[in-house]
Design brief:
By secondary structure, this protein is of the alpha+beta class. Helices cover 27% and strands 22% of the residues.
Length: 337
């Protein structure tokens, strides 16, 4: 089965610049169908300038080409907030598909960026200042921060479409998007040269939170999405100026399973490195579900994300213990399926 047979590419300019009174309505219906069936879609007409996308990919290269010792100065292992560098093999994922529960080794290099927050306002897992490499402004910080602003805009737009596809007015987002938690993960995958079936660029997983927007280096395929009906992994092409969008566990929970959070993985089967950048748009971290203001659990976005993170990944004990205290561990969350 090919991607185009089941994963739609939707032109969302029909929402931002409709050519007829029916354009918005039809666009929202198409997004709804994709969310009901897979929780994955591809979008074009998103308004992110191509030159901004290319500059972001080049900035990733500039970062990952730095000497290892310079990258390790920004290591996540040395920082309380989840901002900074993650080396190949640092992330051990708990593999739900293997009966013996062996850990899967993810071999990518990553770099995490979030809202720029002063340490004076408090530092914890999701809050604090970003780590910036010692590179000229035009080689990293400038283009990366420009791209980040574009992702804030695009993610807000996707949420607006999403809530309408569920029958809500856009106004329900007013208390959910004041200071949204928007996090970017810059990723470099090396060529896949292992015969171990437990080793991936990124092992099978679902995303924890809200909406994910993935920028892929054009022509560098590797993303695969699980098709439950066919019981097979479907490759997703890396196409220039096309974003892959998927829903996370939080949206699946908030919609009572109506909208899907689907497993996906990355295997870099091509020659050379593969660069991508995933943006995770969660909404205000102190907010509860805008889809159900009367949710009796009163679980915030931040509490849910940290809880899901600790379920899926093996964390160093120091970080894991610190994060346990940040959530109400007495409340057992449902495991997303």
């Amino acid at each position: 089965m090919s991607t185009k047979d089941w994963l739609p590419t939707i032109d969302i300019s029909r929402y931002t610049a409709p050519q007829s009174p029916e354009d918005k309505k039809h666009l929202i219906a198409e997004v709804q169908d994709a969310c009901l069936r897979h929780g994955f879609l591809q979008i074009k007409g998103h308004g992110v300038p191509l030159k901004t996308q290319k500059a972001m990919i080049e900035s990733c290269r500039n970062l990952f080409n730095l000497p290892k010792e310079e990258k390790l100065l920004m290591s996540l292992k040395k920082r309380t907030p989840r901002r900074g560098y993650e080396g190949s093999g640092d992330q051990l994922q708990k593999e739900h598909l293997l009966a013996d529960s062996k850990e899967v080794l993810d071999v990518f290099q990553g770099f995490y960026i979030g809202p720029e927050e002063s340490a004076a306002n408090g530092v914890d897992f999701l809050h604090g200042p970003n780590a910036w490499p010692d590179l000229p402004e035009e080689q990293f910080h400038g283009p990366v921060w420009e791209y980040y602003q574009e992702m804030i805009r695009l993610g807000r737009l996707l949420w607006e479409i999403l809530v309408q596809s569920l029958g809500h007015p856009p106004s329900i987002l007013d208390g959910f998007t004041r200071h949204p938690g928007v996090f970017m993960k810059l990723i470099r995958y090396p060529p896949h040269d292992s015969d171990d079936p437990r080793q991936f660029g990124a092992g099978p997983h679902t995303d924890f939170g809200g909406v994910t927007c993935l920028l892929q280096q054009p022509g560098k395929d590797g993303l695969e999405v699980w098709h439950a009906g066919k019981q097979e992994w479907i490759p997703v092409k890396a196409v220039e100026d096309v974003y892959v969008v998927n829903l996370g566990d939080m949206i699946q929970k908030w919609t009572g399973g109506r909208y899907k959070s689907t497993q996906h993985r990355v295997i870099n089967k091509g020659d050379g490195e593969r660069i991508s950048c995933a943006t995770f748009w969660h909404g205000d971290l102190d907010a509860t579900s805008p889809l159900n203001p009367n949710d009796p659990s009163e679980e915030t976005v931040e509490q849910y994300i940290i809880k899901q993170f600790s379920k899926q990944f093996s964390l160093p004990p120091k970080i894991a213990n610190a994060n346990v205290n940040a959530v109400e561990v007495g409340k057992e969350a449902e495991i997303a399926t």
